[in-house]
Design brief:
The protein has helices at residues 20-25, 28-31, 53-70, 75-87, 97-107, 109-115, 121-132, 142-154, 159-166, 171-184, 193-198, 218-236, 239-257, 262-268, 277-284, 289-296, 305-314, 332-361, 380-387, 402-405, 407-410, 432-456, and strands at 4-9, 13-18, 200-205, 208-214, 320-326, 371-378, 392-395, 398-401, 417-425. By secondary structure, it is an alpha+beta fold. The protein is globular, with a radius of gyration of 24 Å. It starts with a strand and ends in a 9-residue tail after the last helix.
Length: 465
């Protein structure tokens, strides 16, 4: 007898979960995703952004199933792809991708090396959970687990299967663009998913099967790429969203390094050696947004640096952006030196910025409350080249790379990009005129410190430029 359950979803209508998928869905392991928000604390700028990894994962399951149907994937591999879609995010820690930044900083280069070039930290943890977690014993055989991990890591027999679950047009991207747009109350990530699916074709290339787009789907693909670009620039890179993420990371780092809070240490220090991995994962899966928030808000942590900063966050007493610095202002060898050596000078610069800002505001500001955040925004053409350029367009008997076929993307200057260095800090209440004065003086001061640290003292050898 076949069992299935239909779940209402605001993005896709009804989502059908069936067979072994129901066994996975009803485990504590999967239900934990209800308590992990998709966009961490983005709700502090987009109040509707309350959706979770649970919602998103069901959406990915649905889209993956539709892609399998459109591309005529056989029933065995369809079931495996759907299971992979259902399990692809179970390795996320509290506050989703924020946990990944903390794990990376605390566990260092060894963990990044362990994950490799292609896997993110949560993907490494996801694979380990799938292979070991007893919650999955009823629904999945050992062979199922191994095949799911292979599919998530590097695909199976055909490139087609990897494209559906982890490719430039994968089910994950197709769902989160629509879902994040909907819950944030914006239209930036909206695209025509039905037309895009209708123009997808399975194409045999030698011994491999690949997913290509019919020429009639070119404009739908352009719309998809633009949706991803605009959602990145307008939502994921929104200054308040960046501030909340950076405050969360700094909060947890202070809890580990300054406050020596054992529960944060055990949660975020991933054991490089195999021996301690099982105990780490067991503890890791007991934490979610809710539990971590309750723990940090306990009275016993009220005097800690982490507890104080977390209270600021939940009460929306957020840091302000006091420096919005375009690294293009540096230029030449100075920019090269900055790019190479910013990491080693970051703490010094934060301490100096705290001293300068304390003078300007006549308020004592701790260096631990100064956050320098470096990020870049590539042009939409560059982003597409990195992610979607490999998508092939079927033009008659020829297959043409998307970026060569799209006139729209050929017309965009790929050299355009912004690299920002922001400085976030607490500011005492002041009027707009005073705040603009502080920002202007901090900007001028910061440019002089860039010259001091990365020109006078840190000239690169000629071979490094």
């Amino acid at each position: 007898m076949s069992f299935e359950r239909n779940i209402r979803d605001p993005i896709h209508g009804f989502i059908t979960v069936e067979g072994r998928e129901l066994d996975v869905l009803d485990t504590p392991l999967f239900q934990r995703l209800r308590r992990i928000h998709q966009l961490a604390m983005a709700r502090l700028v987009y109040p509707g952004a309350l959706h979770t990894r649970f919602d998103h994962t069901l959406g990915v399951l649905h889209v993956a199933g539709r892609l399998c149907s459109q591309l005529a994937v056989d029933s065995h591999h369809t079931k495996l792809i759907r299971l992979s879609a259902l399990l692809h995010d179970i390795g996320h820690g509290p506050f989703s991708h924020v946990s990944e930044s903390i794990l990376t900083q605390i566990s260092g280069d060894a963990l990044a090396k362990k994950a490799g070039k292609h896997d993110k930290i949560h993907e490494l943890i996801t694979q380990q959970i799938i292979l070991e977690n007893s919650d999955l014993n009823h629904g999945l055989s050992n062979k199922d687990r191994e095949d799911v991990v292979k599919l998530l890591r590097d695909g199976l027999d055909q490139r087609l299967y990897r494209d559906i679950i982890s490719g430039p047009l994968d089910a994950d991207k197709q769902d989160y663009l629509l879902r994040d747009s909907y819950f944030c109350g914006v239209s930036y990530g909206v695209y025509d998913i039905h037309q895009l699916h209708n123009t997808l074709i399975k194409f045999t290339d030698g011994d491999d099967e690949v997913m290509v787009v019919a020429k009639a789907g070119l404009h739908s693909l352009e719309q998809f790429v633009l949706a991803k670009y605009y959602l990145t620039t307008q939502v994921y890179r929104h200054k308040v969203r960046l501030i909340t993420d950076c405050m969360l990371v700094r909060c947890m780092m202070l809890g580990v390094e300054n406050d020596k809070l054992p529960f944060l240490e055990s949660l975020f220090r991933f054991p490089i050696e195999e021996g301690g991995r099982s105990a780490f994962l067991k503890n890791y899966l007991e934490w979610d947004d809710q539990r971590l928030s309750v723990e940090l808000l306990k009275n016993e942590h009220a005097g800690t640096a982490a507890g104080q900063m977390f209270r600021q966050l939940v009460n929306r007493n957020l840091f302000k952006r006091v420096i919005d610095f375009k690294t293009s202002e540096l230029g030449g060898q100075l920019l090269a030196a900055f790019s190479q050596r910013f990491g080693e000078k970051r703490q010094i610069l934060e301490a100096e910025a705290a001293e300068k800002l304390s003078q300007l505001t006549e308020t004592k500001i701790s260096p631990s409350h100064i956050i320098l955040h470096r990020y870049k925004i590539d042009s939409v053409r560059t982003q597409a080249r990195n992610d979607e350029a490999g998508v092939l367009i079927k033009c008659g008997d020829r297959l043409v790379p998307f970026d060569q076929e799209s006139v729209l993307f050929q017309s965009i200057d790929a050299s355009l990009r912004d690299e920002n260095l922001d400085c976030y800090a607490p500011l005492p209440p002041c009027d707009e005129k005073k705040r603009r004065s502080i920002e202007s003086q901090m900007h001028e001061w910061f440019l002089s410190r860039m010259n001091h640290h990365f020109d006078n003292q840190l000239k690169l050898p000629e071979a490094a430029v």
